[in-house]
Amino acid sequence: MSIIHHPSDATLAAFASGTLDEARGLVVAAHLSLCAQCCNAVHAFEEAGGAMLDDVAPEAMSAGALQRAMAALGPLDIIAPAVRAAGGLPAPLSHYAVGPWRWIGRGVQWRPVEVASDEGVRVFMLKAAPGTKLPRHRHTGTEWTCVFDGAFTHDLGRYGAGDFDEADASVEHNPVVDAEFGCICLVALQGHIELQGWLGRLIQPFVRL
Amino acid sequence: MLRDGKAAAANNAADWIRAIAESQDRAAFASLFEFYAPRIKAMLMRLGAAADTAEDLAQETLLTVWRKAAYFDPARASASAWIFTIARNLRIDRLRGDNRAKLYAPYDMVEPEGPQIPDSALSAAERDARVRAALKELSQEQVRVVQLSFFEGRAHGDIAALLDLPLGTVKSRVRLAMARLRNLLGDLQ
Asked: Crossing angle for the helix pair B156-163 and B167-185, nearest 10 degrees?
């Protein structure tokens, strides 16, 4: 798999530091499960986190803290074999409830991934038939996408399996799905999609995304 | 002197963790605790935790280090980075009460489900040395902005208010700092 499009450094650093919200973090984690290069970057940022931990001015623990910890020491964990994710989905998705596929338009199916978000971000998977042209649209917030299978193309290039698309509210695009393989992807969408053009505005009420 | 002591403690940390894994060495645990617990507490307070919550999580982090000592692999991470990730995950679990810490599960496994890291990748020790060198290359202002932005999760607007700087300056500083860090770390991949 040759991955061309990656999350930004700021996104990977936010993931490594644990400050990214869960909904967007899930799409980043899905990408990481497919991309050795970004795993390396996250590990580098975690090393930076370790270095900052070494350098922070210590805050004294309360009296007797060490003794209490020593008293609480029990047996060590035995190393357990890694668990494989079921169903062919990337491992990070295995922790979440995934709904059934539903048609939301010609050639396009949708299934929700249950992730709570206090920033109005919804997570879902999309499955589009080969050659599907999505109407030109923009977003009221960010739209992060990780491609699992197949590909789509828009103004910024072709996005194949493993690729990560980090679109913000300034992006307006009309993705075209790969003519041969279609496309399956995971999306974290903040706000909603605004379709452009007279046709888009006409069908907007019927599109729930 | 202080820096040397700190470097020595951080260098010994991997040996202490191994001593716990191999022989449940309580003295090694005490050494780890004395170095890391006050630092984890400080880091968590900087992230906005109350002192007692931060102390509690620091305790829990060190107890987790004890329990999971056999999982520590010095070829994959330095001791400080490993302990940082444990504290990070516990903080997410506790303070946010959501599922997010599970996102990091692949990193905690012995046999990660993730893709194979190419052979050309640097060893963890080399990576650690590079990162530390890279951080030293940044100016104090740049380090401060990177810390606030990436390790305290503050928005750029917040940082601008906190440091009394124009928003544009904060943004360009973050970008510059990240670009430098990325350049200095560039060969990691």
From this structure: 110
Place domain A94-206 in its CATH homologous superfamily.
Jelly Rolls (2.60.120.10)
- Residue B165 CB-density burial (10 A; 0-12 exposed, 13-18 middle, 19+ buried): middle
Task: Supply the CATH classification number for the domain B124-188.
Answer: 1.10.10.10
Angle made by CA atoms B122, B85, B19, in degrees to the nearest 5: 80
What is the second-level CATH architecture of the domain A9-59? Orthogonal Bundle (1.10)
CA distance, residue B115 to nearest chain A CA (Å)? 5
Interchain proximity B110–A69, CB inside 8 Å: no
Please report the ipTM that was assigned to this predicted complex.
Answer: 0.83
pLDDT in tens, B52-64: 999 999 999 999 9
Give contacts of A 4-33 with B, CB under 8 A. Answer: 9-10, 13-14, 16-19, 21-22, 25-26, 28-29, 32-33
